[in-house]
Amino acid sequence: MTVGTITDWLVAVGTLVLAAVAIFQETIRGWFYRPAFQVSIKTEPPDCVAVPFGPLPNGMMIDAFYLRLWIENTGNATAKNAEVYADELRRQRLDGTSEPVRSFPPMNLKWANIGVIYFPAIAPKMGKHCDLGHITDPARRQLLSGDVPRLGLTNQQTSLAFDLMVAPNHKGHIVGPGEYQLDIRVAAENALPVKRTITISLQGTWYPDETTMLRDGVGATVLP
Fold this sequence. Notes:
alpha+beta
């Protein structure tokens, strides 16, 4: 084999390699650069906050507390069209076991403040809040169609409404006092789903004060 032939062969191979890199550069980049999600929640501001509803047509404001998940991109690439899906809700029984809440409809949760399924972009080392659910003043929740007769609650007992993209007509997204576990999946266009379980403890007592409510009225954690 002559020197010229070897040179031509190397040039051809190099050209093929460059063409392959050009065609598959996004795939190759994805091997080394990708988003990764971390989910957390603290039942205190800024994750969980007092946010009143209103004003209603009559000018009334209704006190409420929002529970929000912090979804952080710990990877080295921007997460595109990120979403959070509420998969299954379970309630703890007195014997320590748990059973599915069959009326709960699996559905996407809303991103805080914008109320959409997909968040367009979350840059590396940045995060966004996702609404998990909210608790309204039980004495006034009927003004927001929050009463659920099957729960048998008084107007002093709190309920939790999960912030699904669509509130079902049967109100299966609203639960009464108890200990719950919610399985969620966090994913993006360029990231595989990450599954996490959120524990939620709703005591049933309403406290108008934010600090007291988020300490004694409700609690939430992400299981490791």
